Inverse folding.
């Protein structure tokens, strides 16, 4: 998160609560910002994919004008260790945003996030014919780069597959195991580099994830929480599912 008076207060409160800053912000958005005469009102968090300098700059301007927090949600195709199609590494994106926050005098909280981080979530994984182990290794390295760059939120989505993979849903045990593997790696890097707590987003809208029913989503979360608790790893702050958004739904 980049510095502002409000951002500094939010970060200090998160530090005192020993919780990720984005997770604390989520609690506010779910109710604490509600006006007394609008009980039950909820608020959303503006998230923008930084797919170009123009979009990244415009997002800052829009957030400042609306007086709302901003989350950049960068995919691995857009921003990654090799530069992605924007030319940015995670560190480059962080540097660009930090400089433009100052240039535009932005004083609302601004966060960096990874969107759909996992094996085969990057086109190069398929183009290079990576099988499971190399694809997971590449994903772990990308996640580590995001942690090192100071990302605030990591969406860990291991549901994608190689081009010849079936769209049949993965077994829940596989989905849980790969999610935990990525999260545990992120935590090991974060702790080694003494970074503040990171918020995690889990789940997927990929067909191979199969998270298209309440029953399966609940089963996924039960197994995930049980495994995370057993390994003393943080629980996620956000969950993604297939809510009927594909164009052909």
């Amino acid at each position: 998160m980049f510095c502002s008076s409000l951002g500094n207060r939010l970060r200090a409160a998160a530090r005192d609560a020993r919780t990720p800053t984005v997770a604390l912000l989520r609690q506010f958005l779910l109710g604490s910002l509600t006006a007394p005469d609008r009980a039950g009102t909820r608020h959303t968090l503006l998230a923008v994919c930084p797919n170009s300098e123009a979009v990244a700059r415009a997002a800052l301007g829009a957030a400042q004008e609306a007086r709302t927090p901003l989350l950049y949600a960068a995919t691995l195709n857009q921003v990654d260790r090799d530069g992605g199609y924007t030319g940015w590494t995670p560190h480059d994106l962080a540097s660009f945003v930090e400089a433009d926050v100052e240039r535009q005098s932005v004083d609302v909280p601004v966060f960096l996030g990874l969107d759909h981080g996992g094996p085969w979530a990057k086109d190069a994984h398929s183009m290079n014919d990576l099988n499971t182990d190399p694809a997971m290794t590449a994903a772990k390295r990308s996640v580590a780069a995001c942690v090192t760059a100071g990302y605030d939120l990591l969406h860990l989505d291991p549901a994608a597959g190689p081009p010849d993979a079936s769209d049949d849903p993965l077994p829940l045990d596989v989905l849980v195991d790969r999610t935990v593997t990525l999260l545990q790696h992120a935590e090991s890097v974060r702790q080694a580099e003494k970074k503040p707590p990171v918020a995690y987003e889990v789940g997927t809208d990929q067909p191979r994830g199969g998270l298209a029913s309440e029953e399966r989503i609940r089963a996924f979360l039960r197994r995930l929480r049980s495994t995370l608790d057993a390994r003393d790893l943080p629980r996620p702050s956000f969950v993604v599912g297939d809510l009927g958004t594909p164009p052909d739904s």
User: Anything to note?
Assistant: Helices lie at 5-17, 21-32, 53-66, 90-103, 123-127, 132-149, 172-192, 214-230. The chain has eight helices and six strands. Residues 5-240 form a domain with the TIM Barrel fold (CATH 3.20.20.70).
